[in-house]
Amino acid sequence: MPRIAYITNQFPAPVEWYVVDEIVELRRRGVEVIPCSGREVNPENLPPELRAFAQETQSLWPLRWDILFRSLWMCVSRIALTRDLIRKTFAGAHESLGQRIRTLAHTLLGIYYAAILQDESIEHIHVHHGYFASWVAMVAARFLGITFSMTLHGSDLLVHASHMERKLLDCKFCLTVSEFNRRHILAHYPAIDPGKIFVQRMGVEVPHTTIATIQQSPATAVLLSVGRLHPVKDHVFLLRACYLLRQCGVSFRCVIVGDGPERRKLGFLIRELHIGDIVTLAGHVPHREIGDYYQAADLLVLTSRSEGIPLVLVEAMARGKIVLAPAITGIPELVIDGKTGFLYKPGSLEHFVWRATEICESLRALDSVSRNAREHVRVHFNRPTNLQEFADLFLENMGRDVGSCGDENPVLQQI
Question: Which residue of 27, 46, 240, 338 could cross-link 50, Cys pair, CB 3.0 to 4.6 Å?
């Protein structure tokens, strides 16, 4: 029976339920999965269905003295490998000094992770997202003489790609959520073997019930935004658009679901623009309750600067909702402009407002777009189907030469 470790920056995380889905599917296939989190998660802060996962998850932080002493011994006993990894930490061509110092800390944390897993008979490590946990997984795999793989989404590849070439060279295979991402990897990292980069889309449940027909000329259109209140989601852009939509005479209200570091700033801007009567910051909503918000919406809007293929768009489209999103990264693979939804020019406030106005005034004519959206998700972004494909792809690629990735591995010698 295969035995793997699966690590993310934070696990379990209510907004990353797809990681739980993948672990459950691998276990259903007979794989023993040991989950790990870069940060400790308090089970009391989680929905009831995730608390059991939190209790079985290994955490890198806070550090434990017994594991720390073991990892220090590993550093000393394999001093050549330790020196090599530290040297490569400072060898990146594009990383700042601050990034390299952080990577050094993550190198030591990777050795610590190897000490955690040393007696677990792990054959392979998978890491979801290309942030710091991916470097930790790479280092741990080196010390354990095993392979590792990773899943890349959006910002982890396109914005925060520290030491990405090294990770891609070292990983046994890489899954990514869009064709755009795969093309980006092959264009920007030509040394990477194209045969180990695979597109594996996320998926959602497509409701079995028939989606109700769009309201006929609603007096007030409901715009919905769902996402963490973070600068990359650019809710400031959305608030300015709401101000302009009102100036254009559009009758609407906007509900923003999510929480995060931008909440105070957004609240201030709402007051400054005098749009508090049409914009609501709803705060965090548990995933199991988000369906009610989708159902009440006429238009799902996304204003992010960087994304993979956002699951909020997929979820809304699965319910037959009209969506408006920027034409960036992999989004056009989901939102086919005018057919399954609508796109606007990235960063163009005027184009966003024009498209939103056009949609709000034409809702009664968009039933075909609603049906097309739902069908597109059913065919290409279906959760049960895509989870099966994920497990097939994962096991097929993990199974090739599992356990042969030691210090003498020629791929590892390249980095």
Answer: 46
Q: Which residues of the chain have pLDDT under 50?
A: 210-217, 400-415
CA 2/CA 26 separation, integer angstroms: 10
Given this model, what pLDDT does residue 14 score?
A: 87
Instruction: Give the integer Cα–Cα distance in Å for 205 and 194.
Output: 31
Helices 97-117 and 65-77: crossing angle, nearest 10°?
100
Relative to beta strand 173-176, strand 252-257 is unpaired
**Nearest alpha carbon to residue 279 among 294, 268, 290:** 268
190: cis peptide before it, omega within 30°? no
- Spatial neighbors of 304 by CB under 8 A, at least 6 apart, are 227, 232, 233, 234, 310, 326, 328
Distance in angstroms (rounded) separating the CA atoms of residues 301 and 312: 10
- CB within 8 Å of 110: residues ≥ 6 apart: 85, 135, 136, 137, 138, 139, 140, 142, 143
